[in-house]
Amino acid sequence: MSPKRACDTCISRKVRCSGFSPCDTCRDASKLVICTYSRPARKRGPKARRFARQGQVVDISSPDRPQSHGRLYSLPTKSKVAPDCISKSVLAVIVRRYQQSSYGVWPVINADALLQEIKSGEPEDFDPQAAIFYCLVTSLCAATMAQLHLAPISDGNSLVDSMVLAQTCQRIRDNSNCDRGNPGINSILTSFFLHVYHAKLNQRTSAMICIQDAIAGARILRLDKPSLQSLSLSENKLIVNKDLIFPLLWVTERGYALHLNISPSYTSVPSVMELASGPTVDPQARGVLHLVRLFVAFDHISLHRRSHTSVASASYLVDTENELASDRLSMGGQISARTADCHITREWMRTILWQEALALGFLSSTSYMALTSFGFPGQIGRDLLVSLQYFTAADLLPLGRDQLFKCFEIASTLADTILLTPTTSHLGCEFGPQDFLHALYQKLLPSLEQDLLLKSNLHSKMAKVLVVAPNRLLMMETTNMREKESKNHRVAAGQKFTI
C-alpha cells in the first residue's frame, strides 16, 4: 500500500517514499539526509475545470427567474484549449440580485446599463476592453454571490458559484495585460469586488492585496482628488456616484486594516466631505460619506494607538467617544444595509475605545465618565439593539463577514465584562447587561448560521454567562425577603412606640 504522504526529499527526487520518519530512502542514502515533511500537501488527481458545491441548485430556466437567451460568453484566453463558458442568463440573474440587495452597500455600478451591455455583447467582440468589462462583471457577481450566500446556479451541465466566477475573473486578468500599468476605473472596481470576495472567505492576504491594488489604481486616476479626476470617468455609463468611488475604497481599506490591526496604505483623509450635503448625492451613498466621518473621528486615536508616541490620556479617549456617539446618521427612517453598517461600525469603534481604556488602566467602579466605567459595554449593547431593532437578518446579509465580526466583537466584549465583573448585573433597572447580551445574541443568530466558527465561539461564551453570572431571580427573591423583613421591623417598632 502506498504511503499517504511522501517526504520532501522523495518528492524532489521523484522516487517512491515509505512514508516513515525518516523514510527508507533517506535512511539508506549514502550521505546524511534530513527527512522532512514541511511542504504543504497538494491535492491529488487531475485539476478540475469546474468547481461545484453541495447544496441546492438554482435552475435559471424556472418560470420565476428572468431569462436571457443570448449566446454564451467565451472567456478571452491565449490558450488554444477551449475555455469554460458562463451564459449571459446566469450573469444577468446575479446582477439583478446585486441591484435588489447589494446596491445600497456598493452604490457604484449602474445595474441597468450593465445588464444592457451583457445582453448586447458577443463572443467575437472580445478585444482587450471587452476583457476588462468581463472581469468587472464576473468579479461583481462573485462578490454578490459570496455576500448573499446564493446557491450555485445551474448553467447547462455545470454549476456556477462565487468560486467559479472569481477564478474566471482571475484567469482573464492573468491572461490579459491590457490593464497592467495603466489601470482604468473598471479594473479598479474589479480589484475592489475581488477584495469583497476574498474577505468573505477570510482570505486575509488576498483581500488586503486586492483593496490596496484598488487604492493604488484610484490614486493614479486622481480619484482621491475630485477636482483632478480623469475626464474619462464621465464617459463610463456603467459607473454611478463617481465621486463616491474613492471614499468607498478608503473606508473599506481603513476598516479592514483596523480589523487586522495593520496600517492602511492611504493615511490621508479623502477630500469629499462637502459632498455629504450635495443635492445630487444618491441617498444610498450618504451612508458611505457617514462612514468617512466616523473613521475621521476615530482616526486620531487609531493612528495614535499604532504609533509609539506617548500614552493617550483618558480625556483623549472620552472626547473621541463623545464625537462618535453624537454623530448619528439620518436617513429619513430608511432601512438599508448601509445604514445598519454605520450603526454597527460606530458601536464597534466605541468598543475599541473602551478596550483601549481598559488596557491603559483607566477603568474605575466610581468613574463618572461612561467610557471609563465597567458597565460601558452594556450601554454599547443597548445602543446597538436600539439602532438595529427594525433591521432583519435579510437587511444585514449584504454586509458580509466584516460587519458580522464587528457585531461578534461587541457581543463578546459584553460577555467578557459580565463574566469578569458579575456584580455589574444590577437589579435596580428593568433590564441589565445579561438581557442586552441575550437579545443581541438572538439578533445575530440568523446571520451567525453562515459562519459556524463565530457562532460556536459566541455560543460558548453565552453558556458561560448563563452559568457564571448571578441568578437574578434568586437575588430578586432575596431582596424582596429583606424588604419584607425591614417592613416588619418598622411595623414592630411603630407598635412599640405606640404602647
From TrEMBL:
Q: Where is the Zn(2)-C6 fungal-type domain?
A: 6-37
Keywords in alphabetical order? DNA-binding, Metal-binding, Nucleus, Transcription, Transcription regulation, Zinc
State the InterPro entries in the record. Answer: Carb_Metab_Trans_Reg, Zn2-C6_fun-type_DNA-bd_sf, Zn2Cys6_DnaBD
Record's SMART domains?
A: GAL4
Q: Gene3D superfamilies, from UniProt? A: Zn(2)-C6 fungal-type DNA-binding domain
> Where would you find this protein in the cell?
Nucleus
Q: What is this protein called?
A: Zn(2)-C6 fungal-type domain-containing protein
The scientific name of the source species is Aspergillus pseudoustus
